[in-house]
């Protein structure tokens, strides 16, 4: 083998070694990339399946849009068809009002403020006089003719003034009672946090009315006291005084409870109420002249049994009006279930399922309830025989409707309610003093709901107790047409003097 051929063999050998190294390197790189390639293939397969699924859904949705567009065009082309209803999240437009001018019709007497009952100040307002001492025009100074006298009544508020009274009291030890006694004026609150100043009777009653009746936030009350009479108060001080007022008026609260237990007709309802961040319930009992509020962590039947007493209904002709909550079913008294709640249930069910608007049960039930309410309004217009005949016909229709069976779950559910309470849906038709709705309890509970929206509830159990007592007393005073501030003042003075008065509970 010559030198040239040997040289070529060496070059080929070096090339073989180089290629072997490249192959080894590529094999190692393949081992590293093979798992990644496998994962990529799997991901591609999943994405392809998802694309195919979305493509199928897209075709279905396109077809639905096409069908709905054609249906909309068809409905628009029909005469007399109204526009489609807006989506549920769109608030309905307020209906346009008539072009009638505000106020009474032409020819009717004007509705003006009533004349003052008393006149505190009489002030003479003379006309300007000329050089001769005769009344003259204030603009051109010409002497006036046909003089007349007029009376112009103006009611004005007296600017608030802070009045501080220092009571010089006397005290001593009573060996018989074995306690220290001290003299006290009629309008002087019992001593507390002495020797510091206290709030007087008017300030206490005004603060309570602002908080309970007008539902003002505590800091707004402090600002108002600071701006008008100039009393420096903190929010905590108002809370403390409200709790003291609640303890002083607790006897009146128990009196209200006893009166409602003996009442012939009682409306009952409940709603949510948070106390110290925990969920609870606000219960209310009311009739035409009295209202009682009670805050409790429970919604069980034991609460209403403790409020009304287990013997409620043992007296003749006692009636309880409530919604369909089964906690009220434990009483043996006459009961009337709220027909407004029944109508509301029908309406909400139809709103949730519009196809039920044409269902036979919903049409019959709504018509029957409305006829029952209308018949009660016409009770005085009809003779006793005609009225009794109409009541009998309505009760037979109710009995027949409650025994029916339907092919819909909601219809059968409400039919079962009619069957369960059919004897408690027509009590108001037999008793003149009984209402067919529980609107009285809802009206009583509405101010508390507004208070809950403003404050979020109560910060403590003692605060909740004080609010329920004050709200019960003030609501009752409003029902009886009493001045709330004067009522609170009268009850406080009686409590401080140790007198037991029945100011609110003597109205039956």
Strand content: 5-15%
Helix proportion range: 40-55%
Taking strands numbered 1, 2, ... along the chain, how are they ordered across the largest sheet?
A: 5-4-3-6-7
> Element order, helices and strands?
HEEHHHHEEEHEEHHHHHHHH
Low-confidence stretches: none
Instruction: Categorize the overall geometry.
Output: extended
From the N-terminal CA to the C-terminal CA, the straight-line distance is 140 Å
Residue-averaged pLDDT: 89
- Specify the structural class: alpha/beta
- Major sheet description: 5 strands, mixed
The radius of gyration is 40 Å
How many beta-strand runs? 7
Q: Provide a count of the helices.
A: 14
Topology:
Elements: H1 3-77, E1 171-174, E2 179-182, H2 201-212, H3 218-227, H4 235-248, H5 250-261, E3 265-275, E4 278-286, E5 291-296, H6 301-308, E6 319-322, E7 334-337, H7 339-352, H8 360-377, H9 384-402, H10 409-421, H11 427-430, H12 439-455, H13 461-479, H14 484-496
Parallel strand pairs: 3-6, 6-7
Antiparallel strand pairs: 1-2, 3-4, 4-5
Helix pairs in contact: 2-14, 3-4, 4-13, 5-13, 7-8, 8-9, 9-10
């Amino acid at each position: 083998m010559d030198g040239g051929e040997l040289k070529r063999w060496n070059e080929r050998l070096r090339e073989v070694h180089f290629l072997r190294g490249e192959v080894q390197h590529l094999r190692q790189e393949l081992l590293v990339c093979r798992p990644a390639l496998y994962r990529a293939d799997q991901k591609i397969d999943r994405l392809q399946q998802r694309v195919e699924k979305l493509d199928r859904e897209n075709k279905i949705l396109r077809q639905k849009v096409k069908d709905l567009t054609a249906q909309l065009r068809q409905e628009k082309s029909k005469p007399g068809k109204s526009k489609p209803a807006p989506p549920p999240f769109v608030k309905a437009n307020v209906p346009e009002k008539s072009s009638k001018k505000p106020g009474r019709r032409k020819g009717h007497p004007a509705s003006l403020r009533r004349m003052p009952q008393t006149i505190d100040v009489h002030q003479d307002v003379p006309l300007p006089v000329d050089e001769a001492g005769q009344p003259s025009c204030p603009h051109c100074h010409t002497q006036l003719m046909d003089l007349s006298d007029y009376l112009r009544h103006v009611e004005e508020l007296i600017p608030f003034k802070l009045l501080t009274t220092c009571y010089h009291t006397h005290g001593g030890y009573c060996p018989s009672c074995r306690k220290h006694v001290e003299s006290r004026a009629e309008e002087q609150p019992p001593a507390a946090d002495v020797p510091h100043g206290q709030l007087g009777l008017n300030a206490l009653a005004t603060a309570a009315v602002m908080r309970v009746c007008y539902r003002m936030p505590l800091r707004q009350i402090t600002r108002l006291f600071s701006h008008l009479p100039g009393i420096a108060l903190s929010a905590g001080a108002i809370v403390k005084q409200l709790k003291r007022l609640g303890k002083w008026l607790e006897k009146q609260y128990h009196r209200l409870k006893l009166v409602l237990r003996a009442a012939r007709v009682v409306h009952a309802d409940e709603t949510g109420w948070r106390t110290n961040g925990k969920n609870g319930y606000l219960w209310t009992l009311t009739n035409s002249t009295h209202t009682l509020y009670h805050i409790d962590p429970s919604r069980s039947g034991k609460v209403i049994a403790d409020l009304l007493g287990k013997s409620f209904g043992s007296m003749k002709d006692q009636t309880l009006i409530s919604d369909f909550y089964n906690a009220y079913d434990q009483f043996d008294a006459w009961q009337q279930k709220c027909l407004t709640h029944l109508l509301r249930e029908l309406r909400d069910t139809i709103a949730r399922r519009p196809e039920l608007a044409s269902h036979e049960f919903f049409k019959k039930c709504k018509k029957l309830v409305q006829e029952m309410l209308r018949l009660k309004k016409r009770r005085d217009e009809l003779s006793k025989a005609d009225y009794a005949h109409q009541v009998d016909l309505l009760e037979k229709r109710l009995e027949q409707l409650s025994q029916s069976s339907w092919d819909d779950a909601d219809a059968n559910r409400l039919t079962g309610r009619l069957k369960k309470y059919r004897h408690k849906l027509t009590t108001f038709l037999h008793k003149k003093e009984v209402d067919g709705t529980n609107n009285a309890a809802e009206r009583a509970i509405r101010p508390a709901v507004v208070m809950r929206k403003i404050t979020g509830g109560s910060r403590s159990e003692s605060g909740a107790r004080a609010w329920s007592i004050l709200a019960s007393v003030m609501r009752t005073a409003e029902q009886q047409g009493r001045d709330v501030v004067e009522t609170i003042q009268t009850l406080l003075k009686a409590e401080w003097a140790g007198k037991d008065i029945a100011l609110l509970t003597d109205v039956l």
